[in-house]
Design a protein that fits this description.
The chain is of the alpha+beta class. The chain is built from three helices and four strands, in the order βαββαβα. It has a single domain, classed as Alpha-Beta Plaits (2-Layer Sandwich). α1 runs antiparallel to α2.
């Protein structure tokens, strides 16, 4: 499964309004999980089996909750049993289609 998620602390902004420190803590959890992942300006994408992906998302929320009494989570999942490597394969298929 592929999961795209975004975590937003409600009360962990610095004086400029940035929440980068709290978000970095969540991304660190994802990267340390060993699962295929990527982070862009809006979401972190992670690939793996249901239980392992959801455990990583839960832990990422928990580390943000350590610095904020309220945490928002946006999550989108592509559940397609039997397929792996889709974090890059889906993008490669679109790129090939664009070349036509």
């Amino acid at each position: 499964m592929l999961v795209a998620f975004s975590i937003s602390p409600s009360d962990a902004a610095d004086k400029t309004g940035s929440v980068s420190e709290a978000v970095a803590a969540a991304v660190r959890v994802v990267r340390e999980s060993g699962l295929p992942n990527e982070t862009n300006a809006m979401f972190t994408n992670i690939e793996g089996e249901w239980d392992e992906v959801m455990a990583v998302v839960k832990r990422a929320v928990e580390v943000v909750a350590e610095v904020s009494p309220r945490v928002g989570l946006v999550l989108k999942a592509d559940i397609r049993p039997g397929f792996t490597g889709q974090l890059t394969a889906k993008v490669e298929r679109v790129e090939r289609a664009l070349e036509q």
